[in-house]
Amino acid sequence: MIVKERDMTSIQAATSAETNSIEEMLTASGYSKTAINYYINKPHMGQISDADIISEMTGTCGDTMGIYIKMDNGVVGDAKYQVMGCAGAISAARAVVDLIKGKDLDFARSIDDGTVYKVLQEIPVKKHHCIQLAVKTLHKALDTHHLQRSA
Ligand code: FES
Question: Residue of the nearest CA to atom 4 in ligand 1?
């Protein structure tokens, strides 16, 4: 599979002093408290072994993201993500997964870069393409699912 969970492992093993230092660094770089929280706390990071919808994408920067969706009665019953990449990508992936849980696929389709940016509140301008990677990965998942259902 695509992801070595290097980021997750290193953050979860971090001492509180290390976590504070990461928070300070990200704050100085222009990340909001919400975006930092989404980077540090990753309750939905991982895979869904029996996912109905899976999508993986690699951005032009080389960072890679996967989104896994399990449907339940027409809505997203569970969703997880994996990222091998930067703090912006990790924050954006969690925002996308949080947004789609419990919602139908039409709502998921309506999510765009602005929707995710609003959730994260602030990330550095040079990291806005990380949001695009998360949205593109989601939309690729929805496109693949649509094609499979209409085949
Ligand atoms: Fe590549 Fe953030 S730098 S997704």
Answer: 130
Longest dimension (CA), the chain: 53
Beta carbons within 8 Å of 32's beta carbon, 6+ residues apart = 120, 121, 122, 123
- Of all protein residues, the one whose alpha carbon is nearest to atom 2 of ligand 1 is 130
Q: What pTM was estimated for this model as a whole?
A: 0.89
Our answer on whether the CB atom of 61 is closer than 6 Å to any ligand 1 atom is yes
| Ligand 1 in reach of 105 Cβ (< 6 A) | no
Tens digits of residue pLDDT in 84-122 = 999 999 999 999 999 999 999 999 999 999 999 999 999
- Torsional class of 89: left (φ above 0), alpha (ψ -120 to 50), beta (otherwise): alpha
**Distances in whole angstroms, Cα of residue 112 to Cα of each of 41, 133, 141:** 23, 11, 14
Residue 117's nearest CA partner among 9, 38, 16, 54 is 38
Tell me the best of 2, 64, 127 to mutate to test the pocket of ligand 1, counting ligand atoms within 8 Å of each CB and taking the most.
127
